Amino acid sequence: MNGREMGKARRRSEDARLVTGKTQWTDNVQLPGLCHVVFLRSPHAHARITQVNVEAAKGRPGVVGVFSGRDFADEQGSLPCAWPVAEDILIPDHPPMAVSEVRYVGEPVACVVARDLYTAVDALEDIDVDYQPLPAVTDMERALRQSTDLVHGDFGTNQSYRLVVESGDVDAAFRDAPVTIQRRYVQQRLIPTAMEPRAVVCRPVGEEFTMWSATQVPHILRLMLASVTGIGEHRLRVIAPDVGGGFGSKLQVYGEEVLLLLLARRLGRPVKWTESRSEGNLTVHHGRDQIQRLTLAAEADGRIRGFKVDVLADMGAYLMLLTPGVPTLGAPMFNGIYKMDAYSFTCTGVFTTKMPTDAYRGAGRPEATFGIERMMDELAAELRLDPLEVRRRNWIRHEEFPFTTITGLTYDSGNYEAATDKALALFEYDKLRAEQADRRERRDTVQLGIGVSTYTEMCGLAPSRALAQVRSAAGGWEHATVRVLGTGKVEVVTGTSPHGQGHATAWAQITADALGVPFDDVKVLHGDTLVAPRGWDTYGSRSVTIGGVAIHNACQKVVDKARRIAAHLLEAAETDLEYAGGSFSVKGMGGEGASMTLAEVAEATLSAHDFPEGVEPSLDSDATFDPENFSFPHGTHLCAAEVDTETGFVRIRSYVAVDDVGSVVNPLIVDGQVHGGLAQGIAQALYEEAVYDADGNLTTTTMADYLVPSAADLPTFVTDRTETPATSNPLGVKGVGEAGTIASTPAVVNAIVDALRHHGVRDVPMPCTPERVWRALRAAFLEEPEEPGGARPGAAGGLGPVRGGRE
Amino acid sequence: MIPPTFDYIRPSSVEEAVSALSQAGEDAKVLAGGQSLMPLLRLRLAYPDALIDLDRVEPLRQIRSENGDLFIGAMATHHQVMRDPLVREHAPLIAKATATVADPAVRHRGTFGGSLAHADPAGDLPAVALALDAVLVVRSVRGDREIPAADFFVDWMTSAMEPDELLIGVRVPKLGPGWGAHYEKFHRTAQAWAIVGVACAVRRERGAIEDARVALTNMGPAPVRAIEVERFIEGRSVSDDSFRAASERAAEGTSPPGDLHGSPEYRTHLAKVLTARALTAAAAV
Amino acid sequence: MPRIRVEVDGVTYEDDVEPRLLLVHYLRDRLGKVGTPIGCDTTNCGACTVLLDGTSVKSCSVLAVQADGRGITTVEGLGIDGTLHPMQRAFHEEHALQCGFCTPGMIMASIDLLRENADPSEGEIREGLEGNLCRCTGYQNIVRAVRRAADEMREPARQRPEVAP
Q1: A35: how many CB neighbours lie within 10 A of its CB?
Q2: Burial of residue A86, with CB atoms counted within 10 A of its CB: 0-12 exposed, 13-18 middle, 19 or more buried
Q3: Where is this region: Disordered (chain B) (predicted)?
Q4: Which end of chain A is more exposed for a tag (fewer CB within 10 A), N or C?
């Protein structure tokens, strides 16, 4: 391996079709006889369905069929939850189409199948549904306190589960602690908002079915479709064509996917469903939505003694694929990069009459990172220390790696000092602190704040046995097949399923290095269970650390196979051959007949005319990689925010991100991932929130109300890297897909609070809207608790600072 | 989502349009640029029987001087208005406010008249028309009628136009030398609607404000003229203190809405802060 | 049903359309021009941006019947003889796309932006693209790509040094 490709900023091979509009989105799929499906959805947060009348709709010209939940009751099964986090967890039945009761606004209750979309939408209005309203359950804390308004009546409670993890002597850590800080933070509900709305096409071919879906997880989808419907897995083919972003929202098995399969079977015709954005805001799984009650005990010098985390996590109405597991990913992460003596984590999953939550970029780690990084700033403020100084006094020093944390994870490598030093230099930290002091002194209308976030995260969502320990049903390995064709060109089959990440480029780079072949000679195949039958797909920043390594390992096997053949053909001992630059040569010999290229070996393998005894004529190799440990990217992010104290408006003045994602395959792609991650993390801090009213209606159903930032709303980021290779895989890679999102949210909020702390502000609930900033300021000025967000009922808020900070 | 069915009428002259409107009945809608109406149709929040599309009524796109006033045709696009030399010279407030409307692609289609006829109090242009004492010229088979902006915006998305009346243009008194103008828009993201906006024009003379026009976006079911601010500031010196004192009166007589992006209380506060800023910016011109 | 005649990417079409048919559905479903995707229903996202008689519009908020007699350019109509348009090339070179769903609209909006302002500042580019949402890139490389295309389109003759990988 000569390392020509690893680390090179290759332009992506995917782009050619994407910049010319020659893309294959699921919604672009056209088939003879294709029918369009639209869903009628519940307008009630909670109601009994007493009658569905579809007759009028059936009579419309062009309507092929109209169905309600009752029509599917015998065959639709229950949507899967693959992460039952506790033994006594309550998992409700989750029919893809509601039969007798609806539990969130947007739940499907009927559907129309018609010859075209316009006809189908018209017919939808002819369906008549009678509902008997039931109480909406929208507030987690109230949902737990009372037992009369229940999301699932037969459970007798709105609590799905309670998980407790404890390590060290927590009581001792808090007893007589010189400093105790208690805070309540709210992780608002978010809508992932991939630019491509969901779409599904299903084609029946006899008793077999092909499904195209805008999914991150074709393999998981096939497996789950089989288990939900009873159709043999071998009779199902799932294709994820070009997929327009996911961010976790397409890591799901949706009711619509199951229903399209059932419709295709029932009608014997291909069917297509494409959601509208407003439909998607209601029914694509949501992210985050936690109330965190955090208590930190520390010594007078800032050293952390103990940390207690108590999380309420909103499940929504049902448990979908990973719903209960997502908040529990915080269990090993709330301690961040810090050393401490004791730690406890309690997570309570709560049912509400809202769209279920599930993975959204970061999934559990952003919530945890926010909690600890906000608390570190609070500790610094309490002790009147620089926020970086408090972190330095607590973080794991680079010479202490590998380090087993209080939660039992072993962080294999890292260098927090190096990343921080680099970030400080790029940020001009001291200069900005001076400007901040000056603005304070001048009582400038616009105050400056500096936010710090020194984060780590766990990537890979593997090893598999670690997943077993936390009761996840998934495996954590990834698979690759490398095929050397007779001409020496290479096909790489991966079980990862990219939707914007650039695997076709990056995996070809890994292959080119491992085999010593030109980049352009490699073709990456993915996203079709017929082509790539084995895999666990793409999520959790796992693709390069597991899937990329599987490719690397498969390539090693190809070289090993080729070596035996080359040795035979060159009439040399295997041990006398060296492999470099795509060519075997006999050590110490030169000239004709002393070397042969991989392509020549491939050609000889194809004909197999002259082959060694007992060797199969194939260079093709498989590898399945299951690592020994997670990987732990880390970094230091610094944010300077200007806060208009009159209006509450926040403008990000500068943002520096120094990330350590281990070895880098393609810096262009890595930077792009960081940029996009930052934008989403900043959006959580400042702009986005899925808001339900007290009746359980989502009020942010369109992009006019759910504010996704545009280019005009975001700053230019300064990004850089340190590279401390991971020790848990041969490439030294750590994963980068979620780092930016995880780190940036607390950096921004810390900056806002830092700008206003001298006014007495200790928190601004997210998203830090101008009104919330203004209210936080006003509350501080008035020195009395302010009702949160008078803009509307049920707003997230309640700073709950413990005055005096002592317990 | 998909619009409901409707009859489609595409007149090529104002007369044809007016006649079509008189025949079409109450449930017909006029389609100007469509940038507000199309989303409403797609979300099925509107079910018009017929759409009368003014897209090909070219005379309605004219912007000209007329009897000493500026006349902006109802179908002049935002893109056209914000670049028009007459508008920039004689009604810079309109040019500035229009530049903050939506985004470039929407401004290519969206029209000045459409925004006013839509009478959305969160829209930026109604307050501007109000501040400038614009007169909206409407036509029906019964003849022309001139409606001062102060009478035009009646309620939330409701104008003083009769169902058979068509807005054909807007007469805007020209602001002469000595006038400065500014539109202070406050929104959470570039694309979002104004939480509050302040349209302001002032005439300075010898260090004092001689004349002031201030109107507010999204501070009630219709745009609101901040009369108390105008009264207070007229005759006072150009200074931060007088602007601040004047702006304290900005929310008087308003009834701001509460929604996702701001409570009535917050809007009341913003109206004051933004009015001071708008006055300062307008007076600096 | 009204009959319309439109020129799309250099080809003339004549079709009977329902008045309510959205231009974007006409392009996608009737003409098979699926390079232009649909990302929202409120004119916010800009994914469906095309040029109508040379200026950018969101084709989800224009009726097909309104395009009668007009010319439309979609992302599929850019570039000549298989050569990429400088904007397409710049998006590729600057890694200004990830999933690519916003890309057709973003490219069309960017071309329109440069038509109005051949030499925009970073701030002008950001403002000019406020009607096109991207969820992957954080916009940073999109801004760079537009800048790069602007340079190239203003000085097509001069040899530009390759940006080092």
Answers
A1: 25
A2: middle
A3: 243-265
A4: C
Write the CB contacts of A750 (distance below 8 Å, at least 6 apart in sequence): A373, A374, A377, A387, A449, A450, A451, A452, A453, A639
Hey, is C12 helix, strand or coil? strand
Characterize the bridge pairing of strands A410-411 and A634-644. Answer: unpaired
SS3 A286: strand
Cβ–Cβ gap A647/B270 under 8 Å: yes
Look at residues C78, C94, C65, C55 and name the one whose alpha carbon lies nearest to residue C5.
Answer: C65
Q: Among positive and negative, which fits the CA dihedral A40, A251, A747, C132?
A: negative
In degrees, to the nearest 5, what angle opens at C-alpha B91 toward C-alphas B269 and B83? Answer: 105
- As a dihedral over the C-alpha atoms of residue A725, residue A727, residue A729, residue A734, rounded to 10 degrees, the angle is -50
Q: Using CA atoms of A602, A607, A612, A615 in order, give the dihedral in degrees to the nearest 10.
A: 70
How far is residue A258's CA from residue A665's CA, in Å, rounded to a whole number? 37
Q: How is residue A154 annotated by DSSP? A: G
Nearest CA in chain A to B257: A791
Largest alpha-carbon pair distance within chain C?
Answer: 56
Q: Do B190 and A712 touch (CB under 8 A)?
A: yes
Mean pLDDT over residues C22-43, rounded? 97
Contact B79, B107 (CB under 8 A): yes
Q: Would the CB atoms of C75 and A21 count as touching at under 8 Å?
A: yes
Q: Bridge-partner residues for C50, per DSSP?
A: C57
pLDDT in tens, B228-246: 999 999 999 999 999 999 9
Farthest-apart Cα atoms in chain B, separation = 60
Give the residue-averaged pLDDT of A656-682: 98
Token pair of C71, please? 């010319």
Q: What is the pLDDT of residues A570-606, one digit of tens each?
A: 999 999 999 999 999 999 887 777 999 999 999 999 9
Which of B4, B189, B265 has the CB atom closest to A790's CB atom?
B265
Q: Which two tokens stand for residue C160?
A: 């530009």
Q: Report DSSP state, residue A687.
A: T
Instruction: Report d(CA A180, CA A52) in Å as an integer.
Output: 57
Amino acid at C19: P
Distance CA B177, CA B199 (A): 18
Distance CA A571, CA A361 (A): 54
How close A271 gets to chain B, by Cα (Å)?
18
pLDDT value at residue C156: 60
Distance from C-alpha of C99 to C-alpha of C135, rounded to nearest angstrom: 9
The beta-carbon neighbor of B263 closest among A278, A707, A791 is A791
Distance CA B81, CA B111 (A): 9
The verdict on B269 touching A (C-beta cutoff 8 Å) is yes
Please, which chains are in contact with A (at least 3 CB pairs closer than 8 A)?
Answer: B, C
Residues from chain B contacting residue C56 (CB–CB below 8 Å): 104-105, 108
Maximal CA-CA distance, chain A:
90
Please say if the pLDDT value at position A799 is more than 50. Answer: no
CA dihedral A46, A51, A57, A63 (to 10 degrees): 80
Parallel/antiparallel/unpaired status of strands A108-114 and A35-41: antiparallel
What interface predicted TM-score (ipTM) does this complex get?
0.97
Strand segments, DSSP code E, in chain C are 3-8, 11-16, 49-52, 55-58, 71-73
Spatial distance between the Cα atoms of B133 and B131, rounded to a whole number of angstroms: 6
DSSP characters over A242-284: B----TTTTSS--HHHHHHHHHHHHHSS-EEEE--HHHHHHHS
Residue type, B17: A
Half-sphere exposure of A787 (CA within 13 A, CB side): 8
To 10 degrees, what angle do helices A667-686 and C140-154 make?
A: 120
